[in-house]
Specification:
By secondary structure, the protein is of the alpha/beta class. The chain contains twelve helices and 14 strands. It has a nine-stranded mixed β-sheet. Strands 10-12-11 form a three-stranded antiparallel β-sheet. The protein has a two-stranded antiparallel sheet with strand order 3-4. It is globular.
């Protein structure tokens, strides 16, 4: 069994990734797409690595009473039961505090044995304050302050972790939604290598060359926006000023979708209609469209997987073979359904 991933040149950043039904590291479609993308990458042998947060308390557990009223509770789980700890640490500088960030690793094995590792960032480290230790607990939890701190960890600590893991050969940073957009700031700082002042056009172009962006939510309310005062509070004056210089503020708030658009060489929406709507929202940016898909092997029921294995065994390696399912007899299809 392959347990050691090979070198990676693509880093895929997503606030949520559906890796295992027993791990509440996702809430819905965005996370499911992210997990399926990484599984497809493993099948294809793509040199990819995933970055997300560990979400120790998950999204939430839903409860309904007899009147249909919903209440929620945390979904506690133990990362050590599913994941392996990773030695190198990263840091997050938040409100002037240096927070230590550890990581856990999950390995996705493709149909031909290729392995894509996923690193889940975790602030629950001894020495961090109790509040800081909870920053990677709740998926989409808390207020704007909590969310911005999480996005610092995902984007900036994620880039640092890759360097500490020796993955200096990363050529492309893929932001799955705007939650990871602060990775562009981390890359700008690395590009400047301690040089004082603001990034110049050459620095920004070098970063854009490294980044691609998938946008998901074509309504303003679904895009992360953080007021100017909060950006200054969390990131500090120099970084806040650097973000101001990018032009990613709209009506006094840092728009993470716009920051990712500004920092990327390639952008796509997740359906043709979605691409059209996104282009109307951001007309200055060429937004292409790649319609959402699913990882067929993951979502095919065991009964139909056996049916396909009998008739079209190559479907596991190339989903296009599923078009030959039209030749399977109606009786066998009915039997699989029942």
């Amino acid at each position: 069994m392959v347990t050691t991933p090979g070198p990676a040149t693509v880093a895929y950043f997503s606030m949520e990734i559906a890796l295992d039904p027993s791990m509440p590291t996702y809430s819905g479609g965005l996370g499911v797409l992210a997990g399926d993308t990484l599984r497809a990458a493993a099948d294809l042998g793509a040199p990819m690595v995933g970055i997300t947060l560990v979400h120790r308390k998950g999204y939430f557990e839903q409860h309904l009473d007899a009147q249909g009223t919903q209440s929620e509770s945390a979904t506690d789980w133990k990362p050590e039961e599913f994941l392996e700890p990773v030695g190198p640490m990263a840091t997050a500088n938040i409100e002037g505090r240096e927070i230590r960030i550890r990581a856990w690793r999950y390995l996705i094995k493709g149909v031909r044995g290729h392995v894509v590792p996923v690193y889940l960032l975790d602030a629950a480290v001894a020495g961090n304050s109790p509040w800081d230790q909870e920053l990677t607990d709740h998926l989409y939890g808390g207020d704007a302050h909590y969310r911005l701190c999480q996005e610092v960890i995902l984007g900036m600590s994620g880039v640092e972790l890759l360097g500490n893991l020796g993955l200096a050969q990363i050529e492309t940073y893929h932001m799955n939604e705007g939650h990871a957009a602060l990775l562009t700031l981390a890359l700008v700082e690395r590009q400047m290598a301690g040089r004082p002042g603001f990034a110049n056009a050459s620095d920004l172009q070098a970063v854009r060359h490294q980044c691609v962006f998938t946008t998901h939510t074509p309504v303003p309310a679904g895009q992360d926006q953080f007021p100017r005062y909060l950006v200054h509070q969390v990131l500090g004056e120099p970084r806040a000023a650097a973000l101001e210089a990018t032009g990613a503020y709209v009506d006094g708030a840092l728009n993470m979708t716009l920051l990712a658009l500004i920092g990327s060489r390639y952008v796509n929406g997740v359906a043709m209609q979605h691409g059209e709507v996104s282009r109307s929202m951001f007309p200055k940016y060429p937004i292409r469209a790649i319609t959402n898909g699913v990882h067929a092997v993951t979502w095919t029921s065991p009964e139909f997987a056996k049916l396909y294995d009998r008739h079209i065994p190559e479907w596991r390696h190339d989903n296009l073979y599923l078009r030959y399912a039209i030749g399977i007899s109606t009786g066998e299809v009915r039997e699989a359904h029942s």
